[in-house]
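Quick entry between incubations.
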Amino acid sequence: MNALLIAVPALPLAGALFVALTGWKLRGLSHWPIVLTIAASFLCSLGVLNHVREEVAKNQALADSDPAKTVGFEMVAPIWTWLDIPDAYQSNQPLNTPGGKTVTTAPLHIDVVLRADALTAIMLCMVTFISTLVAIYAAGYMHGDRSYWRFFVYIGLFVFSMTMLVSVSNFVLLFCFWEAVGACSYLLIGFWYQKPEAAAAGKKALLVNRVGDFGLALALFLIWTNYGTLDYHDPVEGGQSVVAGVLGQTRLANPDLFVHGGVAVAICALLFVGCCGKSAQFPLHVWLPDAMEGPTPVSALIHAATMVTAGVYLVTRCTPLFMAAGAEPLFMVGDSPFTAQMLVAVIGGFTALLAGLIALTQTDLKRVLAYSTVSQLGYMFLALGTGSSLGIVAGMFHLFTHAFFKALLFLGSGSVMHAMGHVIDMRQFSGLRKIMPITHATFLIGCLALAGLFPFAGFWSKDEILASLHERSHAHPVATEQAALQIDSSKQASIDRDGYQHVALLSEETPHKHPHAAHNPAFDTTFSHGLYGFLYYLAVGCAGLTAFYTFRAFYMTFYGELKVPAAAGDHAHESPASMTTPLVVLAVCAVFVGMVFGFPTHAFSDLLTQTPSLAYKTIADTAVEPEFHVDVAFWGTVVALIGIALASYLYLGDRKEAAAIAKASGPLYDLSLGKFFIDQLYLVVFVFPLLVLAYLCYAVDRFLIDGAVNTVGAIPVAAGKTMRLLQNGMVQFYALAMVLGLIVLVWGIAIYGS
Amino acid sequence: MNELALLHNSLLIGALLFGLGMAGFLARRNMIIMFLCAEMMLQGIAVSLIAWGRYHNDWGGQMLVIMILTVAACEAGLALALIVMLYQRTGRLDIAAWSEIREESLPAYQDVELDEFTAETQVWPKLTTAGVLPDVDPSVDEPGGHRGQL
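Done. Structure below.
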């Protein structure tokens, strides 16, 4: 089984290396090694998933008899020890080991270990499946490109990095592959690097991501200094006294071993900064729309389906850390704490709304989809921010379904772009349904799924998200708050508003728990209920926005009278089979994936909740009996239908109202069209001052430092130029010089000597 | 004459010899003259040493002078041999003929032709011949006559 798990990333890497070495000879055949290896990798992922499923079932049977035995299921495949520095970590605070002992020193031990649990297996299958389809599609889309083979090398490398990202078991390696997918993203955005916009977009993506990565790096430093290890799992080597993994069984079995207090909040907030960068959340969302400069298959694979969901994956993976941060406040709102999870929810909700509003007025088909992606990622974070089992499963499920229909939509837009001679401005073409019937049909399915209409995939995941928010807005306080209360009541005296005194609060001694947390009068759920209630309505509103802008784009592209831009030439026809086949496959997925894995079967949630990070007590306690909220589903659907109806009214047929509304709304319209001028704001606030600073540094370097160095260098030259005049070859002159020197010497001795 | 006055006078002679030698060395371009001037400077030193030796009632001064004489003799042999070699190369004793070891970019020293040496402008006194004419080789035709060799 370990071999299968290792094969998942190893195959695409091998394919990429092979094409990298032989691509100049393979040329038009370069896609074959990549498509085959990624497809093989997908089969291996299925094998891993199947194994995990079987083991989970076995494990559950075991857990029924002995509930304390294990938490969830994980398989660990060690490959190689990268780094081993004994006693790198030294602390006064006791660290827990898997054996239950406490130690005060720990090695810096970075093993390249692959670790599969339900979350990883699902991500692996999703990533490799979409990648396979996109690689097949790209074979048609990139046909005839000058750097055909380079494209497939990058795709192979990306799949390798992404599969490693979700399957490594160490935060340092996570960071490595986090950067690796970022690097692949950079390379692929700037794939047509001779086009200045593409080069600039790649640079922007890289730079904006640096901000997020900085936060992630700080989070890792904090984890190291507080946990003494960076492994997820409990190290397996026997006899060795190694520290319990950050997300390992030891801690999950006894959640009090997690670091609590202010530091935990800081870790979570900084992790989330990293996720904001990678997953394009406000205020770091600005790079994703620009990233559409890359080839469309890349937009589908990296900037819609897989890489941008890494942040969602990371937050899900680190759920125990967020739960441990508990109700410790980032800051206080009145008497109520604003927690790290609320931060996730609020940022997610705000981003969903902001991106949805921007998408309303964009005229570039890919940009609409890009903002839609940002908005849907915000939706996922909104769900994760609820901090309940239901919400986290909903967020991950939305990630899963979104990958299919958003990849479908992007590939569909790529098909349009391919036919229109690389024109993507929706004002320049319309009525394409007649010449591109397959693209039209599949795009429609994607739109329905994205809008969240029953029974398409998006409906089920959107409904789960709305249900989790709804649940959170008026339910009893969930376990985060209970856990926090337990701290609160046992250590009331030391609770204050800066949490730094609570480092490793609970690793000292498990405080006595108050069974009835609600008795504590200090705790007030009004604020959190109000907040999540507000976010619920915001999410419902966003569902309407999503439906509207999706169908606006759909109608503008495929309906109305047939109009084809000049750039298309006589090229305007349906795309080749290599491009339409993936579209059809993805369309089928977009229809059924929600039904098959979602609420009707619970297959997804049953498996996902067996992930160790999501199966331990604190989060499992928040699970509620799955229940279909008719009212939530009803309102979600009604709002989506209103959006679609409005879009149909305004954009189907020849109407003037859309322009009239745009004119009437005046500055609001400009605000949306100008993307809320966030880019311009950043230009003034960050880019311009940094440019000034850069030029200043350049000037200092060029004139001050170089000047000083050059001056020092010029002194001997100038001195030599002067002195060489003395070398006139006249013996008398030399003799005179000697005499003068002697005179000076004697005179000096006479005056200053003795 | 007391010892101090003797010292003063001797040092004065020594300084004069040294100064004259130095002036000659700096001013003249004939290699033999320059060599002799250098010798004269040595002799000036030698006189000073003897004077100091006597003043301190110490034979060291005389001993050093003997050594200087020895060294000067060796040096004279070497220097004259060199001068002969140099003369054979150019046929001139002028030290200015040997200024190749200068900076490349600097110009070579040019003799300024003094009116004194240009025969056309020189008016010789018309006198009756006194004594025997010097035996001048008519095949050697040098500008400025035989005096140009000095």
